Amino acid sequence: MLEVRDLVVNYGEAAALRGVDMTVRSGETVSLIGANGAGKSTLVKALMGMQPVTSGSVLLDGEDISRRQASDRPKLGMAIVPEGRRLFKDMSVKDNLRLGLHDAAARRRGADGLDLAYDLFPILRKRSRQLCGTMSGGEQQMVALGRALVSRPRLLILDEPSLGLAPIVVAQVFEVIEAVVAQDVTVLLAEQNMHRALSLSDRGYVLADGSVVLEGTGTELLQSDRVRTAYLGES
């Protein structure tokens, strides 16, 4: 479904991504892992058209979309749960969810999108009129996921969904992600919590200093001595 070829992204004179190659097949869950500053969020932004590409290409179903506008991505069936969730905290749960149906293509695909979000996260139905700013971090992450899912995207990208959350909330967030994966949605997960990410992924890529340094199945990377010592902090 998604193919990245020799992708380079520069911030001024500094290279943020250095010739990244990766693929995401339909129905897969793929993790993009690495330490803070490795280039994960830059890659996510480049995939979603939020960061200009210096060279290389991003292909969706074989079509080069690397230089198309960010506003085109939802029309192509891509959706993102951004780092920090970026909800409108003074708006209700329902109104935040409805923002996922912001264009005609999304509305056509997601005619029953709100019901999908409510069925996946029943607490949101009960709290549909509650202001998002009054909800817990885990509940807000459900809203952010629901907002992305209401359009029934073909590819869902999650950028650091556990960042800044307490351990008990992180556990709740990954339970939510597991529920999404169970819906056979194709998922690309950029995440610092490598053990949790790899545990639910079919495959993964390890980024360091803007380059892919390792790739393999989730199990292979979890069992890799290099990953365990350098990236998971295990001896």
Number of beta strands:
10
CATH topology tier name: Rossmann fold
Superfamily (CATH H level) name: P-loop containing nucleotide triphosphate hydrolases
CATH architecture: 3-Layer(aba) Sandwich
Q: What is the 3D shape?
A: globular
Placed side by side, the strands forming the largest sheet appear as 6-7-8-3-9-10
By secondary-structure content and strand pairing, the structural class works out as alpha/beta
Q: Which segments are poorly predicted (pLDDT under 50) over 5 or more consecutive residues?
A: none
Major beta sheet summary: 6 strands, mixed
Count of DSSP-assigned helices: 10
Q: Whole-number average pLDDT? A: 88
**H/E topology pattern:** EEEHEEEHHHHHEHEHEEHH
Instruction: Report, as a whole number of angstroms, the end-to-end distance.
Output: 37 Å
Query: What value does the Rg take, in angstroms?
Result: 17 Å
Percent of residues in helices comes to 25-40%
CATH class placement: Alpha Beta
Which strand-content bin applies to the residues? 25-35%
Domain count: 1
In short:
Belongs to the ABC transporter superfamily. The chain is 34% helix and 26% strand. With 235 residues, the protein is an alpha/beta fold.
